[in-house]
Structure to design on (150 residues):
């Protein structure tokens, strides 16, 4: 009977953490997207502008004329699925101390942040290489992006 109670407690804790994190993401999300855009934009070509607009990250090639523009959009809410779900699962692990759970959350968020910055950087270079010629085009990078983000 005890395992049934612990499963119920774990499920309740996971659902509660998921609801709270999803609600908080409406406030955290735009700041997270801005930090990812700023970090990823610093690693791309100077001809590529990376900015955030709420929960979206916009990557724009700024060529010599206004007619030469290419852009890519990363939906910021797509970036949140992994961190929110993993954080809810970590916080719901009742057998670990709060210190261990919070340390695991911090490490996982740092990892997600690095992967998201890498994704935005790759897309930025993909936009640049598509417009100016390079080893890979944006179309060639598109299939890789979902694999990197998850």
């Amino acid at each position: 009977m005890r395992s049934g109670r612990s499963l119920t407690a774990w499920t309740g804790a996971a659902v509660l953490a998921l609801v709270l994190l999803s609600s908080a993401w409406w406030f955290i999300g735009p700041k997270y997207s801005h930090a990812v855009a700023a970090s990823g934009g610093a690693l791309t070509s100077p001809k590529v502008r990376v900015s955030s607009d709420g929960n979206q990250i916009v990557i724009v090639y700024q060529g010599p004329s206004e007619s030469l523009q290419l852009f890519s959009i990363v939906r910021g809410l797509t970036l949140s699925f992994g961190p929110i779900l993993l954080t809810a699962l970590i916080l719901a692990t009742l057998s670990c101390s709060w210190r261990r759970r919070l340390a695991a959350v911090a490490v996982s968020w740092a990892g997600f942040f690095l992967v998201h910055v890498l994704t935005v950087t790759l897309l930025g270079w993909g936009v640049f290489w598509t417009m100016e010629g390079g080893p890979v085009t944006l179309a060639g990078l598109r299939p890789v992006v979902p694999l990197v983000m998850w």
Strands lie at 48-53, 56-61, 71-75. The chain has one domain: 2-149. The longest helix spans residues 2-42.
